[in-house]
UniProtKB/TrEMBL annotation:
UniProt key word Transmembrane: no
InterPro entries (alphabetical): GGDEF_dom (IPR000160), LacI/GalR-like_sensor (IPR046335), Nucleotide_cyclase (IPR029787), Peripla_BP_I (IPR028082), Rev_trsase/Diguanyl_cyclase (IPR043128)
NCBIfam families for the chain: GGDEF
Protein name: Diguanylate cyclase (GGDEF) domain-containing protein
Residue span, GGDEF domain: 514-645
Keywords on record: DNA-binding, Transcription, Transcription regulation
Organism in which the protein naturally occurs: Ruminococcus albus
Pfam families reported in the protein's UniProt record: GGDEF (PF00990), Peripla_BP_3 (PF13377)
UniProt-recorded Gene Ontology molecular function terms: DNA-binding transcription factor activity; transcription cis-regulatory region binding
Keyword Cytoplasm in annotation: no
Superkingdom of the organism of origin: Bacteria
């Protein structure tokens, strides 16, 4: 069947109230119309104080291939919190690279794209009416965001206009700019306490955090809220509901803004389709608290408190226990200990697969890693490679599962994830999140859920990803130390210790009728090169010979530098009887080509001994000795031929 249309939502910090409200509006409308949604979001604040972590998170915005989507919604309110502007520039550039695609911004215009303005005017006006008409306050101060910030200026203008209609002139001394954060509320409180500003009867804040900071600082100095001054906020954050003095606050109406953005795109991508407008419940957007003297919204506070609890004791026999996984269950699952204890990269990925259940409910989960994610020679700060490896995959609906090394497969990064381009039985959301350690990008994770599912991304997903990031870096570090102990530093081939470890791994995957093949190769004339041209030239000759050994080595075989000028190739497989002869001829051809390309004053030559075991006979030392004897016979024969000449 034809795949569903897909709307791309670019946002950030998806567990915040604003992002959840935006997601609610987008998801509800897309579910009505049968659209899929792809969400790309940084899981932390853009200006997080650990700069390397923020960079690693923000690289997710360089991933989307907008050619795959039918329309794009940009949550500019969130993205413009990146003070550097880099995130928006990256998104804008990626969209323009993909040609003509309908794009809509939420709340704040950007780059000439169509903008759906926030529907907050009625709510902001109701805040003013509540302070004046319900509480009878006239000496009112308004605290807003930064001067020049579109949202800050818009909210201030509406407050001033409505207060004017209520007969209160909002002069400059009653208009205060802040930063939408606790700091500006604290600063205003200090100015009032120090007498630099009057003690207003009421403060209307254009954001909850400013109001919370104000209350905190006032009460610290003995000023009572709401008896001496009332405070109300805007955003209805969890912090407002959980504060010691709960803050009366009003929800933003970005759910409708986001829903209308979907309707705008629908008119472009489905012009004949009907529009089913989202209708908000305005009465439920106000949550009364203690800060203005009203009866607190106990139901909302209790719900917020319950959702924030760290549950330790679960009913693990309950049928729906995995539908309600919280941060407590994540921590008590011992996922951190299990993942970091992984001895090898393969075991690490298996353990990650074993902890995917903590993200339930989902349809599919995919962990896509760089093919060279284990390499310490590659450090990827920006962008993604052309190919990615699906290293872990789980599904609850008969989809692909990958829980071991051999089942991993490679995809084109431009396709993002195979399921995105396939028909889904029900409308789904695909959450894309960065997988990284510091600012080194390792890959990305994709969580697919049904759109109708009530679960949104939360603290569990973010912290689960942190555990995965840490375990992958631990696996990289352990693997590096192992590689240093089993790999020859000069050539990059395995050393003797590595040979035995890799042989042990090969034995685990041997089939019944496989045979052991061993080639022992000894470089001829190394002493002459060292004595005549110097040891640096001798080292270069060894490195060139090692490249020849790698070329001679098959995909599932192990190349080894066993000593100064001695090399070994080990393989287990369905070899034919003429394999030793073919290897000797192939080596001669490889060296002949190298000599013609290098144009050195000496020739690279080598003697080879190659043996095959009987079927299902894998005695390594016995066949190493046989191959060594064959190599010396070859070397002796080559000497006799040179002497005869």
């Amino acid at each position: 069947m034809e795949k569903r249309k897909t709307i791309c939502l670019i946002t950030g910090m998806p567990e915040t109230l604003h992002a959840r409200r935006v997601a609610k509006g987008v998801f509800e409308q897309c579910d009505k119309y049968g659209y899929n949604v792809a969400v790309f979001a940084s899981m932390s604040h853009f200006l997080f104080f650990i700069e390397e972590h923020a960079k690693g998170e923000n690289n997710i915005y360089s991933l989307p291939n907008f050619k795959l989507f039918d329309g794009v919604i940009i949550d500019t309110v969130t993205l413009l919190e990146d003070g550097t502007g880099k995130v928006m520039k990256t998104v804008d550039r990626r969209i323009k690279e993909c040609g003509n695609i309908p794009v809509v911004c939420l709340g704040i215009p950007y780059g000439g794209y169509h903008t759906i303005n926030g529907y907050n005017d009625d709510i902001l006006r109701e805040m003013c009416r509540h302070v004046v008409n319900v509480h009878g306050k006239r000496d009112i101060c308004v605290l807003t965001g930064k001067k020049g910030h579109p949202e800050a200026e818009e909210r201030l203008a509406v407050f001033a206009d409505e207060l004017g209609k209520l007969g209160i002139e909002l002069d400059e001394d009653h208009r205060i700019y802040g930063d939408f954060w606790y700091n500006s509320g604290i600063a205003l409180a200090k100015e009032m306490i120090e007498g630099k500003r009057p003690m207003y009867e009421a403060v209307i804040t254009a954001g909850d955090y400013m109001g919370l900071g104000l209350i905190e600082e006032l009460t610290k100095h003995g000023i009572r809220v709401p008896e001496d001054i009332i405070v109300i906020g805007f955003d209805a954050t969890d912090e407002a509901m959980l504060a010691e003095i709960t803050l009366t606050s009003y929800e933003t109406n970005y759910t409708k803004t986001a829903a209308d953005a979907v309707d705008y795109l629908r008119k472009n991508i489905d012009p004949d389709g009907s529009i089913k407008p989202y209708v908000p419940d305005m009465q439920n957007l106000c949550h009364e608290g203690m800060s203005c003297g009203c009866q607190p919204d106990i139901t909302q506070s209790a719900r917020t408190f319950r959702d924030s609890l760290y549950y330790i004791y679960h009913n693990y026999t309950s049928e729906n226990v995995f539908d309600n996984i919280d941060i407590g269950m994540l921590m008590e699952s011992y996922a951190s200990e299990s993942l970091t204890a992984s001895a090898t990269p393969e075991e690490c990925l298996k353990n990650i697969f074993g902890k995917v259940y903590l993200l339930l409910p989902f349809v599919n989960f995919r962990l896509c890693l760089r093919e060279d994610w284990l390499s310490y020679d590659t450090y990827l700060k920006e962008g993604y490679p052309d190919k990615m490896m699906v290293a872990v995959a789980d599904s609850t609906e008969n989809g692909v599962k990958v829980n071991n090394w051999k089942d991993m497969f490679t995809i084109d990064t431009k396709d993002l994830v195979p399921e995105l381009n396939e028909y889904t039985e029900k409308p789904c959301v695909f959450y894309f999140a960065a997988v990284h350690f510091g600012d080194n990008t390792l890959g990305y994770a994709v969580l697919q859920r049904e759109l109708s599912d009530r679960h949104l991304l939360n603290l569990v997903f973010r912290n689960w990803l942190r555990l995965v990031n840490n375990s992958l870096e631990m696996a990289r570090a352990k693997n590096r130390y192992v590689q240093l102990s089993i790999v020859d530093n000069m050539t990059g081939l395995y050393n003797r210790r590595g040979m035995y470890e890799k042989f042990s791994d090969m034995m685990k995957h041997a089939d019944k009728d496989d045979r052991l093949m061993i080639c022992v190769i000894d470089m001829d004339g190394l002493k002459y090169i060292n004595d005549t041209f110097g040891h640096s030239e001798g080292d270069e000759a060894i490195i060139t010979m090692s490249r020849a050994i790698k070329t001679l080595c098959g995909d599932n075989e192990v190349p080894v530098r066993a000593g100064g000028d001695e090399f070994v190739i080990i393989g287990i497989g369905a070899y034919s009887d003429d394999e030793p002869k073919k290897r000797a001829e192939h080596l001669a051809d490889i060296l002949e080509k190298s000599n013609s390309e290098l144009d050195k004053p000496y020739r690279l030559d080598a003697s080879i001994g190659c043996v095959l075991s009987d079927e299902n006979s894998f005695e390594l030392e016995k066949h190493l000795t046989k191959a060594d004897e064959e190599m010396y016979r070859c070397k002796s024969s080559r000497r006799k031929n040179r002497t005869a000449l």
